[in-house]
Amino acid sequence: MLKILVINEVSPHIKNRASIIFEKIIPILLKKNEIKVFWLSYDHKINDESIDSPYELLHVSKFKNAKEVIEKTKPDLIYLTPGLSIIDYAFLLTARVLQIPTFGWVNSNQMFSPTGTNVKRQLKIFFNESFIKNKINENNSEFKVVTYLKKNLFLIRSMRKNGSTYNYIIREIIKNFKLIFIYELQENEKYTKFNCDLLLVENELTVDQPHNLGLSKNNMKLVGDPTYDLPFEEKYIEIKNEIKNEIKNEIKILFITTNFTAGQGKSSWSLEKQNQMIKELIKEYIKNKGKISLKIKIHPISEKYSDYEKILEKYNTNIQIFQHEDIFKLIKEADVILAPSASTAGLIALIMKKPIIVWDYFNIKGDIFLNEKITMNCNKISEINDCVLNRMKFMQENELVINNFIKKFCGEGNAAQKIADAVNELVLKIK
């Protein structure tokens, strides 16, 4: 039996990179091995939902250190996210000491061109968010800063269990904290600090940046992104299907938000400004009611459903909000996608031949959708209607450019099989 310990922010019930990867590769891996997946989440909220085999759900709050988890689960492989995530880093260090192979997805953000780090802005976001309360369960909540300190305590205990001195641990925590704002590794840590035995990389464009951020090219494997496998498989969705929709009375618009809280890309984003954007969108919808329908898909982790509910309840509309629902299905049902910037969901829509309008409300610098001219662009809410009406003309005129972009950034599908093959190769090395 192949036992895999997965370290992830949320449980597999919630769609993110890790849950998508394992949903896709487990059926393939089962062809060669019996599989047991221990899924350890470290989100502030403990998920008590049941889940089918081969998963067993764990939560970091039930353990004192990484070694304790590993001793309980006895994994053959550990999946984690290489980088500054505190819990993932604790398991990476422990896995090295115990000589357990690790693999992970390389999160190299290619949606925005490098624009330099705004340290003041990053610090402001960090400290403002520290005093936001997260709900743990029906009766309890916790400040984000408390969660952050608990994660560092877990790292300290894990490093102590590995034999590190307190002086070394404190220096390491301070170093990693500084990296959040100014990412400059010491010479002896370049290409090694966050390295796993197998690094899953989406495409050639995502190799150089993570290589400069402490990962080795020798351990990287180009696999594509399994998020895009289903859109590639569903090639029956073509522009001609959109033309049929012209006879409909209502044009279905799906507005997809973006996670700007991570600070990626230079922009004028703020929570207040985002709320104002949603209000403008609702008012524009009311003006065009009967001509369009509107659904809003918010980020599954970084945003709160209740925040959008509070805004919507002030208006008498039938606008629906979605958070954890299947993004593929929502995009498939839409006639046009509206978004404030490039995103993974936007790339899915592009593969599915959906017209995309980027409403550049936050003046993002280096947005790849706008740079590559593969989407329609508007700066004011009043311009969106013209973009919607001209969407099919835009798609037909830019079909070749869009297809070339998809091939360059998203590959040609079948990523799940490539990832499963890479994992099986890693398994053979440890047998």
From the structure above, extract its key features:
single chain, 431 residues, alpha/beta, Rossmann fold, 2 domains, seven-stranded parallel β-sheet, six-stranded parallel β-sheet, 18 helices
Please explain how this structure is put together.
The protein is an alpha/beta fold. It has two domains: 2-224 and 413-430, Rossmann fold, CATH 3.40.50; 228-410, Glycogen Phosphorylase B (Rossmann fold). The protein is 42% helix and 15% strand. The protein has 18 helices and 15 strands. The chain has helices at residues 17-29, 66-73, 86-98, 119-130, 144-161, 166-181, 208-212, 229-233, 239-244, 271-287, 305-312, 327-333, 344-351, 368-371, 384-389, 391-397, 399-410, 415-430; strands at residues 2-8, 35-41, 55-59, 77-79, 102-105, 133-135, 141-143, 198-201, 220-222, 251-256, 292-297, 320-322, 336-339, 356-359, 376-378. It has a seven-stranded parallel beta sheet with strand order 3-2-1-4-5-8-9, sandwiched between helices. It has a six-stranded parallel beta sheet with strand order 12-11-10-13-14-15, sandwiched between helices. Strand 8, helix 7 and strand 9 form a beta-alpha-beta unit. Helix 1 (17-29) packs across helix 18, helix 3 packs parallel to helix 5 and helix 5 crosses helix 6. The longest helix is centred in the middle third of the chain and has 18 residues, at 144-161. It is globular and about 65 Å long. Mean pLDDT is 87; it is low at 110-116 and 236-247.
